[in-house]
Amino acid sequence: MTLLRILIIILCFASHSFAQQVDFQMPQSSGYKGVPMELVVVYENIQPALNPTIPEIEGFTIQRLPNEQTLNETTFFNGKVTHTIKRSFTFILTPKETGVYTIPTLTFIVDGKSFQSTPHTITIQDPPTGGALEVEISGTSGNIYLGQPIDLTLKIFIEQFTDPSLGITLNARQMMSFLRGNLGIFNDALEEGNRQLREIRGKTKAGIPTTFYELSVRATAWPETSGPFKMNPVSVLMNYPLSLKKVRGFGLFGGESLEVTQFHLIEAKGEMPTIEVLPSPSKDQPLWYSGAVGNYDFRVIADPTHVKIGEPITLTMRVTDRTMGPINLDFLSAPHLDRVSALTEHFRVPDTPLGGITEGRTKTFTQSIRPRSDGVKEIPPLPMSSYDPISKTYQTVWTKPIAITVDTVATVSAGDLIGDSAFTSTKTPLTEVDGGILANYSGIDLLNSQRISLSPRLLLKIAFPPCVFAIILSIIVYGKRSRKSKRSAKNRINRATSSIRHAKTLVGECQVQTLSTALRELQMLKSESNFSKEIDTLLSRCDAMQFGGFDDVTLTTDAETLVEAIQ
């Protein structure tokens, strides 16, 4: 009985809406030729799968949007709960011609039930303006050389819009806000704010005088390879306004704002210029040329200028772009100094590519060179070449020669290496004391009382042994650490000794590299040996032999003698 009462109460205070209906929503009674309008069909409380269609309507093209919108509504009224499920389908009707048209009665059948719309009359007019939109691209075209920039300017012309009913004209920024599309290489420049807006007078394609807003955007691109330069086309879309309305804001100080009530989509495309990127010509191209195009200044600083054979000299090269206009030094490379015969004849020059540091219009490179002999008196003039696309010739800037001093490498014999390391021992004579142990002390104090009394002196004597113990313990710990350090040093000396002995079985550059590594191992023990000067001398001889072409037949033997002396 209780369950029955509950069911009755539920049925009294809740009702499930099973009422089915179809609603047609098309509030516009007028429109413009070519401007899309919406017709929405709303199904209420209809669950089966739906695929509504609209028959052809004279004067319109019809397209249904692919997705449906679903809305669940729950209402409470007089203690009753009502559930409604609405499913909406949107159709786009685009007028093809001007005139007065009637949307006829539309019939939809669902679950065997027929639903009909009422006829709807619409007046179609020509748009108040064609909304002229034009795109123009100018700048670099034809052939350029790799290393030259591509400078392009995009200009977008938008016809000014005035709402005749409100007498309001939209300004340039308001009109530009309706733009969208793909601007290609101009996208980044536009985001960076590299643009200009101005108002100009002109004519539409139909020859009608009007006012345009001109948006000008400049962009620069730098080709990375030769060949056709590919650029994405520029396509500009715009929702051009057709009518406005004033909207009142919320609150006391809300004010009024403008809202576009109708617009139509217009499009304009810009033709990108055809550009072919050419490599620098091979005719008359200098050997050290590294791809620079334009006009450059070249300066070199050498440090140090006083070295030994095989020791490095650092060349700091500063390349400054003197070309007018925008620059990009990311792709600028240093001149190939390893191809300058006047330099390689007396110096060893690596052929590896150099990285540089860019600051403003200057890029700095560093290069290490090593003199081959002590007869070198200067670093010869160094060249920097670039291709001038205007004169179509190569231009070379030469630096001035830099005076240097190169010393020969000092050689030491095996005897010299250990001559200063001999140690002589000197015997210290002992002094004999007469009287034996009794000679240590004698006097009448031996008869004094031996009774112990706590005095400051006695307390000092009591505290003395623990202090001595602590000192001895510290000495023991320090000794262990010292012995450990000596064992580590000895192990490193042993490793260096093995490497030097192994070097005797090697030849050429491998032998010199092995000796250098072993001697630098010993160099780390300078504070623990008396042979730091001799090690530095042998390392200089290694550099001279490795980088300066110095022939040193006794280097291995002298190195072996040195490690034996160290041991």
What order do the helices and strands come in, and which of them pair?
Layout: H1 2-13, E1 21-25, E2 30-32, E3 37-44, E4 60-64, E5 69-77, E6 80-95, E7 99-103, E8 107-110, E9 113-116, E10 120-125, E11 133-139, E12 142-145, E13 150-159, E14 162-163, E15 168-169, H2 172-176, E16 179-182, H3 186-191, E17 195-203, E18 209-221, E19 227-228, E20 234-248, E21 256-270, E22 275-278, E23 296-303, E24 306-308, E25 313-321, H4 341-344, E26 347-348, E27 357-359, E28 362-371, E29 378-379, E30 383-388, E31 393-398, E32 402-403, E33 405-407, H5 414-419, H6 456-503, H7 508-523, H8 532-547, H9 555-566
Helix pairs in contact: 6-7, 6-9, 7-8, 8-9
Protein architecture, described:
This protein has 567 residues and is α+β, with helices and mostly antiparallel strands. It folds into 4 domains: 11-125, Immunoglobulin-like (Sandwich), CATH 2.60.40; 133-247 and 257-276, no CATH class; 281-407, Immunoglobulin-like, CATH 2.60.40; 410-420 and 489-567. 22% of the residues lie in helices and 36% in strands. The chain contains 9 helices and 33 strands. Strands 1, 3, 4, 5 and 6 form a 5-stranded antiparallel beta sheet that branches. Strands 23, 25, 26, 27 and 28 form a 5-stranded antiparallel beta sheet that branches.
